[in-house]
Amino acid sequence: MKVQDLKHAGLKKWVDEAVALMTPDSVEVCEGGQSEYDRMIDITVKAGLATKLAKKPNSYLFRSDPSDVARVENRTYIASKSESDAGPTNNWVDPAKLKETMTGLYKGSMKGRTMYVIPFSMGPVGSDIAKIGIEITDSPYVVANMHIMTRVGTKVLDVLGSNGFYVPCYHSVGKPLAAGEKDNGKWPCAPMDDKYISHFPDTREIWSYGSGYGGNALLGKKCLALRIASVLARDEGWLAEHMLILKLTNPSGEVKYVTGAFPSACGKTNLAMLIPTLPGWKVETVGDDIAWMKPGADGRLYAINPEAGFFGVAPGTNNDSNFNAMEAAAKNTIFTNCGLTEDGDIWWEQIGHGAPGKTVIDWKGQTKPAPQTDKSPKGEEIAHPNARFTAPAKQCPCIAKEWEDPKGVPISAFLFGGRRPSTIPLVNQAKSWIHGVFMGSITGSEVTAAVISDQVGQVRRDPFAMLPFCGYHMGDYFKHWINIGKKADADGKADKLPKIFFVNWFRKDAEGKFMWPGYGENSRVLAWVFDRCDGKDNCVETPIGNLPKPGTIDAPKGVSDAVMKELCSVDIEGWKKEIADVRKNHYPKFGDRMPKELYDELDAIEKRLGV
Ligand code: GTP
Ligand code: SPV
Ligand code: MN
């Protein structure tokens, strides 16, 4: 479709301005559909950027530039009008200044390339909860990924009409081509210091430059569905969260919907697609990364998955740990930074087997001896630790039938968690909504390879798993959560809100081994949560919250009763240290925007712990 055929006058003007600034060789409005997807892939194959996989139908492998393998938090900006609105956890630059700098970078940045204008819907097209974005990009890789991750095309323009609201999103890889120059197999991107992932919350705009990687370039995902949507949610009274959504059915056929907020690469996709080891239980997937939730007339929170695909972590995924993800990614899938086997298949660490043949090509394009097992020494991985698959959600064998229901699904429980080698128990139920908000606010986790950072492996506070994704002041975000509880109270519907739990699959023993087997065995915790929501007598009250009564979670094979006891008890000394750190280093960061209610919770837990 041509730009002059756009019916929305504001949109047409915005595209014309972008064309004048970025000077692409040609412009194309994406219509969606298989032939457009195939054409995008074909362009990348011809440019030497993608390899067709002989072993997986209609699937392709891309290798990015080594500098462009994950989100870049220190190049990510929340450019609100006032610095204080961005808060202490976001990078801030004056929006006018940032636009000036980036306009300089965008000038001529699409020379030698085609500009694609992608109309996309986050959420089912036309749903009341859905939001429309328009992404301008010079990357056919981005167009193809957006086709899988969002709903793209003319049908979105039809809903937008001639004056509808959309979030304008600029994206350029920042690598113009000189006359006759081609990518020639080299992933286009800009040097690190020229990369910018910028958000303008007051005007609801996104400007991304210099990176082609997922979270930096597929702008519907973290940029729109979390950073901008969190601001819309604050203003409109709903929640935009970094949460999976799952449907849990017990052996009697009763259903509850549960969400889980864990930081990047901490197990959302795996929990969302879990195959229970507990007989008779069933888990189905509604979403694996992002949840948008609105209060219904009945006082319950209804969640939709705004995405249409999975952008999942490849390493660690195998037929035992996540069979459903392997199936989802068995065809029509884009792989990024995985290894390539001699027979034309992907390979990664912990895929469950060594690589066939004599050699593999690693994520940097180097030929290496084929690994005999599925492990590689640290630093010598064949797949990048943040290698990803982009797979259509509808291909997932355990996708819930209601996953595209525009009304959303009513949530019974929120799980918060992270990678904590010590202190934090396997599962712990908050005593109340406000206690749950307190627990969400102090969440900590080891930093993973999902972000380019020298902190990888260190524990950092990641409140609500939203540290890199909250588009405004985190103190105000805590207040927003408190207000959801207050409003429910005022309406006499507090009992309709989800119950809040804290989980930790990542406790380690003295030898550094995981004490809990995780994956399918996490169903034991889900079952306990399910029963807790029904008020079953399966918990004991402790100073930190409600923990499982001994015997109410059966130990999985290989886990001794002593280990089970350790996982489900309160480490008083560890908690005293934890709380002291919150008091000294965490809460003071938020200054006078830190809600008093959470300081009251801090006082109360100190008292219970005997501080
Ligand atoms: P993002 O897509 O970055 O938001 O990640 P995510 O939260 O969806 O994480 P994902 O489920 O992809 O898991 C990340 C890594 O953690 C993978 O290597 C998994 O194999 C591993 N993992 C997931 N669940 C568990 C678990 O229960 N125990 C252990 N030990 N590892 C897990
Ligand atoms: C994450 O980092 O939380 C992801 C991958 O889900 S990305 O799309 O890059 O944000
Ligand atoms: Mn994520």
Topology summary:
Layout lengths: L8 H14 L3 E4 L4 H13 L3 E3 L7 E3 L13 E3 L4 H4 L8 H12 L7 E9 L8 E7 L2 H10 L1 E2 L1 H7 L6 E6 L23 E5 L4 E5 L4 H4 L2 H17 L2 E3 L2 E6 L5 E7 L6 H5 L9 E6 L3 E5 L5 E4 L4 E5 L5 H10 L5 E3 L2 E3 L4 E2 L11 E3 L5 E3 L18 E5 L16 E9 L9 E3 L3 H9 L2 E3 L12 E3 L12 H17 L8 E5 L19 H11 L5 E4 L2 E4 L12 H7 L4 H15 L9 H14 L2
Bound molecules: guanosine-5'-triphosphate, sulfopyruvate (SPV) and manganese (II) ion.
Question: Brief description of this entry?
Answer:
By secondary structure, the chain is an alpha+beta fold. Residues 242, 264, 289 line the site of manganese (II) ion. Monomer.
How would you characterize the overall build of this protein?
One of its GO terms (cellular component) is cytosol. InterPro entries: PEP_carboxykin_GTP_CS (IPR018091), PEP_carboxykinase_C (IPR013035), PEP_carboxykinase_GTP (IPR008209), PEP_carboxykinase_GTP_C (IPR035077), PEP_carboxykinase_GTP_N (IPR035078), PEP_carboxykinase_N (IPR008210). One of its GO terms (biological process) is response to lipid. GO terms for molecular function: GTP binding; kinase activity; manganese ion binding; phosphoenolpyruvate carboxykinase (GTP) activity. Keywords: Cytoplasm, Decarboxylase, Gluconeogenesis, GTP-binding, Kinase, Lyase, Manganese, Metal-binding, Nucleotide-binding, Pyruvate, Transferase. The chain is of the alpha+beta class and about 600 residues long. It folds into three domains: about 190 residues, Phosphoenolpyruvate Carboxykinase, domain 1 (3-Layer(aba) Sandwich), CATH 3.40.449.10; about 270 residues, Phosphoenolpyruvate Carboxykinase, domain 3; about 90 residues, Phosphoenolpyruvate Carboxykinase, domain 2 (Beta Complex). It is about 30% helix and about 20% strand. The chain has 16 helices and 30 strands. The strands form six sheets. Strands 11, 12, 13, 14, 15, 16, 24, 25 and 28 form a nine-stranded mixed sheet that branches. Strands 1, 4, 5, 6, 7, 8, 9 and 10 form an eight-stranded mixed sheet that branches. Helix 11 packs across helix 16 and helix 15 runs antiparallel to helix 16. The mean pLDDT is about 95. The structure holds guanosine-5'-triphosphate, sulfopyruvate (SPV) and manganese (II) ion (MN). The site of guanosine-5'-triphosphate has 23 residues, from helix 9 and strand 17.
